Amino acid sequence: MQSNHSEQSAKETEEVMHRFHDAFDRHDSAAFIELVADDCIIENTTPAPNGSLHVGKEACLAVWQGLAAARDTSFSREEEWFVGERAIVRWRYKWGADESQSVRGVNLMRVRNGRVAEAMGYVKSSPAPEGRR
Fold first, then answer.
1. pLDDT at 49
2. Using an 8 Å Cβ cutoff, are 77 and 91 in contact?
3. Coil, helix or strand for 120?
4. Residues of the chain with pLDDT under 70
5. Which residues are CB-contacts of 109 (< 8 A; sequence separation ≥ 6)?
6. What is the pLDDT of residue 48?
């Protein structure tokens, strides 16, 4: 079954996602107000095993504005793909000077009507103990 939003172009999704990432790069918390859908949902990366669920614009703004406000951190995009209303973004999040103070992950995003409507984040973590892999 096709999504009701299947007509949205990858180019439209890419434009919104670039504005979204630019807000992080500039640590511009206020920019998210115009970028987040009223019915937005975030499935965050922590805590394990399933991450926290944030529902609604205010809850999602709190997550993203909190991350953007931390001026000693940065996100770098390693690779991005856009298909219709969907975006897949591989990234590295840094909170220090070297790689040991960073983590890599991927976000599965959905953009609807010019706003981010869904984000599911996944992070690389320490390997399972021996014998548990």
1. 86
2. yes
3. strand
4. 1-6, 126-133
5. 17, 86, 87, 88, 89, 116, 118, 119, 120
6. 85
Q: Kindly give the pairing relationship between strand 74-83 and strand 53-55.
A: unpaired
Question: Could you please report the per-residue DSSP string of 61-118?
Answer: HHHHHHHHH-TT-EEEEEEEEEETTEEEEEEEEESSSSGGGEEEEEEEEEEETTEEEE
- Taking the CA atoms of 7, 82, 11 and 57 in sequence, report the sign of the dihedral they define: positive
Angstrom distance (rounded) from CA 22 to CA 86: 18
Name the residue with tokens 């640590």: 27
- How many Å apart are CA 106 and CA 93, to the nearest integer? 10
Question: What's the pLDDT at 36?
Answer: 98
Taking the C-alpha atoms of residue 37 and residue 55, their distance in angstroms, rounded to an integer, is: 10
Interhelix angle 57-69/10-25, rounded to 10 degrees, is 50
pLDDT in tens, 60-94: 999 999 999 999 999 999 999 999 999 999 999 99
**Dihedral (C-alpha) 17, 99, 26, 118: value to the nearest 10 degrees?**
30
Q: Which helix (H) or strand (E) holds 42?
A: strand 36-43
Give pTM, 2 decimals.
0.86
